[in-house]
Amino acid sequence: MNRNCCADRPYSVGMIPILLVMFSLCEPIRAADAGEIAGEWIANVTGHPTFLTHSYSHAAVVDNGDLYFVYMGAMPDTASFIVKYVNSIKQWTTPVLLGKGPQGDPHHYPNLVMDASGYLHVFYGCHATPLLYKRSKSPRDIKDWSPEYRISPRATYPRPFILSDGRILVFHRSNTGNPPQMSYGYVESKNGGETWSEFHELIADPDKRWIAYVGGVVLDVSNREQPVAHIAWMLSTQNLISGEINGANPMGQYTTVLFCMIR
Length: 263
Fold this sequence. Notes:
By secondary structure, the chain is mainly beta. The protein has a domain of 178 residues: Neuraminidase, CATH 2.120.10.10.
């Protein structure tokens, strides 16, 4: 696999920007249940979720009718919380504090996935800072968690996925070096979050002046042996030393779509 598959590919000016916004739940919740959940949430929420979620994030999992939901609290801490709605008794649990990033920042929103055994995996607290990770100690239990691990040194916009063979992929933007190099790719765990790979680069920043803004990542797992990641993204030019944006509308200047193979 050529992980640096776009470093030498030319970019065209004037292409139409593409944004994929995706919401994925394992199974639907009935409208009546949703209304009851919302009423309970408004009444009993902990952490004052000024920043509930983001189009980038996987914020919810539904399993056997129960809803697991992660959210970010208010400034200045922007800490991450998890809460569970137990469908059999129509009640929310007490929210549990997961952790927080190195400074208050609304980019620190958490992400949540559940593996085939019911273990919960949360990713949170990063904006060009370490990507923080915890795993539940027991399946479907939000009370007890593993220690906090840093699985990528300088990450932004994490998006986790679990493949049918149990591998966990966390796509994110990485900026390392001085001046920083804004590349996009993923880290991977093959043992349920016990250990993590180095960063695998998919979208390169060859001259340290591009920023990849990813609108959506979709995994096609129809071929179990060779899943494919479809990534819609756009490039912005930025002077990373002075912080000045080049151009009147940089977010609309450079756009393309990348199809990458994950082996």
